[in-house]
Amino acid sequence: MLTTVNITDDIYYIGVNDRETYLFENLWPLDRGVSYNAYLIDDEQTAVFDTVKNTKTHVFIDKIAGILKDRPLDYLVINHMEPDHSGAIKALQDKYPDLKLVGNTKTFELLEDFYGPLKNYHVIKDGDQLSLGTHTLSFYLTPMVHWPETMMSYESTTGTLFSMDAFGGFGTLDGGIFDDEVNLEFYMDETRRYYSNIVGKYGAMVQKALKKLKDANIPMNIIAPTHGPVWRTDPHCIIDHYDRWSRAETEEGVVIVYGSMYGNTQKMADVIARRLSENGIKNIRIYDASKTHVSYLISDLWRFKGVILGSCAYNTGLFPTMETLVNKLENSQLKDRLLGIFGTASWSGGGVSNLNKFAEKIKWQRVGESVEAKSSPKEKDFQQCIAIADEMAERLIKERA
Ligand SMILES: Cc1cc2nc3c(=O)[nH]c(=O)nc-3n(C[C@H](O)[C@H](O)[C@H](O)COP(=O)(O)O)c2cc1C
C-alpha cells in the first residue's frame, strides 16, 4: 500500500520522500532528506500538480494509478520546471497519452530544452482559469521565484494554493504531512535554510509574488508547496515568515564565523562572544567555517542582524572556507547587516584585507575597526575585539526600541 493522504475530500497528497540524496542541487546537505511533494485533484476532470525527481518516477506514477484506477489523468499542471519536480513529466505522458500539460510560455520553452518536444500543451496566461468540474483553478505567474517560469495555482472551492517551491523547505515528511502533525521548529529551520540558500537572492520577486496573492484577495486556507509540510492549520505563519525573510528582516543576535587552522583566530571569536554576552546579547552563534556547511551559516546570517567575520591569512588570501562564505553572501545579495571584522596573519596578510574588500562590496554598516593580530592575539588585539563587541551590542540594543 502506497501512502497517499487526503488533504480535502478530493485533493490528495501524492509526494515522495528522498532519503538517498546527500546533496540537494549537489550542493546543500540533506541531513534529514527532502520530500518532492505533488498533489492530485479527483474531479470530473482529474489534475496532478507537479511531478518528482526522475529517480522517484515509478512510485509517483503508482500512487496516481492507485487513486485513479482505470480513469484517465486529464491535466498535469507544471508550476515549476526544475528537474526535482519535472523529472517524471515524460513518463506520466507515456502512461496517460491524452494528458494535457498546463504551463506558461516559459514553462514549455524549458520543457522542450530539457526533455525535447512533448504533446498536448495547454498554455495559460496570468489570471487564466481552468474548471475541472466542481473545482476551479486560477493561475498566478510568479516569475523568478526562483526560476523564470515559476507560477502558482489556486483552487477556489477549498482555498488551496499549490505554491511550488515557495513556502517549501528541506526535510522528509516522516509520517506527518501537515503543519499540525509535525515538529514545526525543525521544519522552520530547514525552510529558512532552503529559502536563504536557494530563493533568497530573489527576495524582490518573492515580494512581488506575495503582493500579487494579496491583491487577488483569495482566502488562503491551505498552502501546498513542493517541499516540506502542507500548511492547513496556520498557512499565514509561513506567509509571514516568507514576507520577513524576503524583506531581509532580522532578529536581535550576532553570528560570528571564523576560519582558523591553529586556533589563534578562534581565540578572538571567543573573546568577542563573551563580551557580547556581558553586554546583554542573548542570541550569539559562533561557527567554525570549516566544520559547519555554508548553507547553515547563510541560514543564520539571514536570521540575525549582527555579523562578525574572522579569517587567518592563507596563501595571500582568505581562509578557503571563509572565501566560500563571502562569495555566497555576495551572490545572495543579503542586505542591511552590521559587520565586524577580525583575523590573524604572520607576514603580509590576506585574510582581514580581503574581508575589508568584501565589506566595501556588500555595503553593510561597519562596526568598529577591523583587527588583525600578528600570528597570535595579544592584549591590544583582544582590546580591539572587545571594542567591536561593545559597539555591536550598543547598536543592536539601540534598535530594540
Ligand atoms: C598554509 C598556510 C598559508 C599561510 N599564508 C599566509 C599568508 O599568505 N600571509 C600571512 O600573513 N600569513 C599566512 N599564514 C600564516 C597564518 O595566517 C598565521 O600563522 C595565523 O596566525 C594562523 O591563524 P590560526 O591559528 O587561526 O590558524 C599561512 C599559514 C599557513 C599554514
Automatic annotation (TrEMBL):
Pfam families the record matches: Flavodoxin_1, ODP
Name any one GO molecular function: FMN binding
Q: What is this protein called?
A: FprA family A-type flavoprotein
Record SMART domains: Lactamase_B
Q: Which organism is it from?
A: Pelovirga terrestris
Which PANTHER family does the UniProt entry name for this protein?
Answer: ANAEROBIC NITRIC OXIDE REDUCTASE FLAVORUBREDOXIN
Which SUPFAM superfamilies does the annotation name?
Flavoproteins, Metallo-hydrolase/oxidoreductase
What cofactor(s) does the depicted protein rely on?
FMN
User: What region holds the Flavodoxin-like domain?
Assistant: 254-393
UniProt lists the family membership as follows: In the N-terminal section; belongs to the zinc metallo-hydrolase group 3 family.
Q: Which InterPro entries match?
A: Flavodoxin/NO_synth, Flavodoxin_CS, Flavoprotein-like_sf, Metallo-B-lactamas, ODP_dom, RibonucZ/Hydroxyglut_hydro, Rubredoxin-O_OxRdtase
UniProt cross-references to Gene3D superfamilies, sorted A to Z: 3.40.50.360, Ribonuclease Z/Hydroxyacylglutathione hydrolase-like (3.60.15.10)
